[in-house]
Amino acid sequence: MIRGIGVSDGIVIGKVFKHNQAELVINKETISDVKKEIEKLDEALRKSVADVEKLRVKTEKNADADTAAIFGAHIEILKDPELRDGTICRIENEHINADFAFQAISDSFVDMFEAMEDEYFRERALDVKDVSKRVLMYIQGKEMVSLSSLEEEVVLVARDLTPSDTAELEKGLVKGFITDIGGRTSHTAIMARILEIPAVVGTKVAFETLNDGDMVVLDGLSGRVVANPTEEEIKEYEAIAEEHERNKAIWETFKDKESLTKDNKQVEISANIGKAADIQRVLDHGAEGIGLYRTEFLFMGRSDWPNEEEQLKSYRMVLESMGNKPVVIRTLDIGGDKNLDYLKMDEELNPFLGVRALRLCMSMPDIFRTQLRALLRASVFGNLHIMFPMVATVDEFREAKRLLQEVEQELVEEGKEVSSTYKTGIMVEIPSAAILADAFAPEVDFFSIGSNDLIQYTFASDRMNEKVSYLYQTCNPSILRLISMVIEAAHKEGKWVGMCGEMAGDVRSIPLLLGLGLDEFSMSASGVLKARHFVSEQKYENAKALAKKALQMKNQDEVLELLDEYKNRK
To answer: Which residue in 446, 441, 471, 445 sits closest to 456, CA to CA?
Structure first.
């Protein structure tokens, strides 16, 4: 049994085809003809842009415009002046070969993304690697290995698949794919879900373990891979596959329904997005709102700050697309591991606990005011909720709100329209904010709990550090008590509480959160219908009793045991 991360639902049984990607060997060489190396670079960039444009058109035809936008982003990377100019600078100054110089600049982009804590941004490193490999192949005069020439049905196995590889897959022939590398939010994983190709990624060992022609079961639901299954195992997985198909048909019927428990407790199931182009997937899955729009992506991968009009365009598009449904837009959350090429930041001993997110924005009020102006101008196009991240004290929130009100007054004096119904709230991700929720509650319109950071800061444990990752305990009673304190304080003031971290989309945690009184669950768009169906199978009264018991437990194991008993009773 090989274990990985199931990133695209479905079970397939088929024959293994191993995708051997050409390995690039790049050595540093001293060159005399600088002009020739620059010409090689420009020709490679031109051909790469042409290739990716073809992939964009093909993907728009086979999937949708939103998915095809991935390749629009790839073209932007290829056209990024820092990539070309940085490479030329090294060629001219160091008299080195174009492929070595390009690799060095590309690696610096990759390092920047890979160092980020946020999984969404960390996965963007794969996009840079994808486009860079194409450019390097052209510089070296090599052919790209195409996956479009398969002639029989296979389960594809590779060390890694780029979004470009995924776009070339013929769905009728590639029944599913397995990779050693990758995570749930990589563009390859996103494309697998859009194309509905079952996939397991991050196995670390599949490429070495499996051989061409092996029979294999790929279970995209659990992330399991079974090599050369027995007849009994095949029957077992065929039964699971049939059940999954029946479940999918049921989930689809929940697309336009309200999110109600059996005893009519209503909640909202919303979706998280990273850019305006993600909105179509949200609409396709019938989310009741946007629980988190990460605006950082607007500011990254460019050479200067986005201006007010650029920001307004993105915020307006999302708000208009969602109609009257709530849209929670988080103000710029930069710092810690998320940096901007064009923003020089002081080095800090511990940047995760330093000047980041709201703290950073308040230290550069002109930049922050531009974002607030764009948000407030966009407010007339929908149901806007402005959320400040990384708030530790009531005074911080008051100061941010004071600035927001100043900007609003400024816009009114300029004759620009601002909605009178926009809301302001905070992301609860620092324990101090959760503990003082009763002090915040009268002053905010809503809370949204960022469970990933709340857990990390509560346990003083870096969730990306494998040595202490055991402390990332979503169901530990300490976390449940903090969540309960926030919800109780908010409800006393008639305010609502959402959650936009991974915990909200975990069906195992949903009964606990439901029982604690969470009002809104926000997750990846593909999880919305499954979660809504799961909520429909719960009784609120039972969930409340479950949560009450869980709050009295002493550790996570006891809570998990309680959850198992609850599940088995149903």
So the answer is: 471
Reported as half-sphere exposure (CB side, CA atoms, 13 A), residue 175 has a value of 17
CA distance 146 to 138: 14
DSSP 8-state assignment for residue 44: H
SS3 percent helix, strand, coil of the chain, rounded to 5, is 50, 15, 35
- pLDDT, position 483: 98
Considering only CA atoms, which of 505, 65, 59 is closest in space to residue 280? 65
Q: Is 283 helix (H, G, I), strand (E, B) or coil?
A: helix
How many Cβ atoms from other residues are within 10 Å of residue 467's Cβ? Answer: 8
| 301 CB burial (10 A radius; 0-12, 13-18, 19+) | buried
Supply the pLDDT for residue 119.
Answer: 63
Residues designated catalytic: 187, 500
308 phi and psi, to 5 degrees?
-60, -40
Q: What pTM does this model have?
A: 0.71
From residue 407, alpha-carbon distances to 301, 370, 378, 458 in Å are 27, 9, 13, 34
3-state secondary structure of 58: helix
How far out from the chain centre does Cα 34 lie?
41
Q: What pLDDT, in 10s, does the model give residues 405-449?
A: 999 999 999 999 999 999 999 999 999 999 999 999 999 999 999
Per DSSP (E only), the strands in 185-319 are 199-201, 215-219, 224-227, 259-260, 266-273, 290-294
Distance in angstroms (rounded) separating the CA atoms of residues 423 and 548: 31
Tell me the C-alpha distance between 525 and 298, whole Å: 20
pLDDT at 464: 58
pLDDT computed for residue 568 by the predictor: 78
CA distance linking residue 92 with residue 136, whole number of Å: 18
Confidence at residue 161, expressed as pLDDT on a 0 to 100 scale: 82
| Strand-pair category, 5-8 with 199-201 | antiparallel
50 Cβ neighbours under 8 A, 6+ residues apart: none
261 neighbors 538 (Cβ within 8 angstroms): yes
pLDDT band at 402 (very low <50, low <70, confident <90, very high): very high
For residue 466, the model assigns a pLDDT of 58
Q: So what's the pLDDT on residue 283?
A: 92
Instruction: Tell me the torsion sign for CA atoms 452, 453, 459, 460.
Output: positive
pLDDT of residue 6: 87
Tokens of 472: 């990332």
Convert the pLDDT of each residue in 152-181 to its tens digit.
899 999 988 877 777 777 777 889 999 998
Q: Rounded distance, CA 71 to CA 66, Å?
A: 10
Query: Residue 268 pLDDT more than 90?
Result: yes
Please report how many Cα atoms fall inside a 13 Å half-sphere around the Cα of residue 570, on the Cβ side: 16
Question: Hey, which bits of 228-345 come out as E strands?
Answer: 259-260, 266-273, 290-294, 326-330
